[in-house]
Amino acid sequence: MSYVRNAWYVAGWSHELAKEIPLALSILGERIVVWRSASGTLNALEDRCIHRLAPLSLGRCEGEGLRCMYHGLLFNREGRVVEIPGQESIPPKAHVRRYPVVDRHSWTWIWMGDEDKADENLIPSAVGLDHPDYILGHGHLDYAAEARLINDNLLDFSHLTFVHANSFGAGPQFAETQARITPLDRGIRYERWIENTLGSSSRKSDVPMDSFMTYDFLIPGILLMTGGVFPLGTASAFEHGPPDLSKAVSGVTFTSQAVTPMRDKNARYFFSWGPRYDQGDADVRDRLMGIAAQAFAEDKEMIEAQQRVIDDTADAQIMPTTHDRGVTLFNRLVDKLARQEEGISKQAA
Q: Could you tell me if residue 63 is left (phi over 0), alpha (psi between -120 and 50 degrees) or otherwise beta?
């Protein structure tokens, strides 16, 4: 499956990467080692020593560098060998790939494409765990499935009616009505009003209300979602467009989610979710995270089963439905950007 390389991928939660402890991971099938130096500087290199191909993630942090603990070659943060024990001369080819890496919004992001094109302005504006307006829980799940299948799931919320009937308490509206889908430069925007409803397990109301939800789904696979519950008639008052969230009576939350392709048919799914401070506390956050744990387990079971069916089906083909507009637009964008990158790569060669 196609993935965009000139993009920032989530490698992990920033606070989970301790100083001077190398972390091994894979993104898009590439072995990477990430570490913080003693000064706190964030680094990422190809996870292999150029001598005998031992993993640098088994190495030792020294100052701003990383020493291979097989035969002692010392790499600087640019990926160049600066010391070979017992050998004065260092060959010009003694280096490995360096990856641009930054901390932003409580996540560690790695740029997987052309280093010269790494633009921090392309990092999606997620809401970090330290955001002053929200109290968030967080976690991650590993999937035995292609990342693209998880993306497709997040781009088509008609599945909420069926997969999440028990966890989210989603009603028939998600399957029976259409959301508003708007193309963006690097993704799509989803907007939906559900009118005259008592809400769901995460947005309950004792009297009929109008519920709004919206999310941006951005390259390479980042979902940023918010919404709230409003007095009956709000949807009509705003002509079914985006409301003023400050007017919500309850249910204002934010979730940031990220899908990272690790290796073939393996992906990692990061998530955070919680209420705005003026509409919830730690108890509300924990209740939402309990709902999320059930819902995300439901997704995981379905998507991994879907992957097994695909693996067992010769020339597996899908049949799109009317709910696939977001899926189609996003995947076309991914394929377009991937083809452009491939074309540039061939020209450079």
A: left
pTM beyond cutoff 0.85: yes
In this predicted structure, the answer to whether residue 342 has a pLDDT above a threshold of 90 is no
pLDDT digits (tens, 9 = 90+) for 294-314: 999 999 999 999 999 999 999
Q: Map residue 302 onto helix, strand or coil.
A: helix
Distance between CA 331 and CA 261 in Å, rounded? 15
Amino acid at 199: G
- Which token pair is 146? 């292609």
Please report, in angstroms and rounded to a whole number, the separation of the first and last CA atoms in the chain.
Answer: 23
Distance (Å, whole) CA 179 – CA 192:
5
Band (199; pLDDT cuts 50, 70, 90) = low
Distance in angstroms (rounded) separating the CA atoms of residues 223 and 152: 12
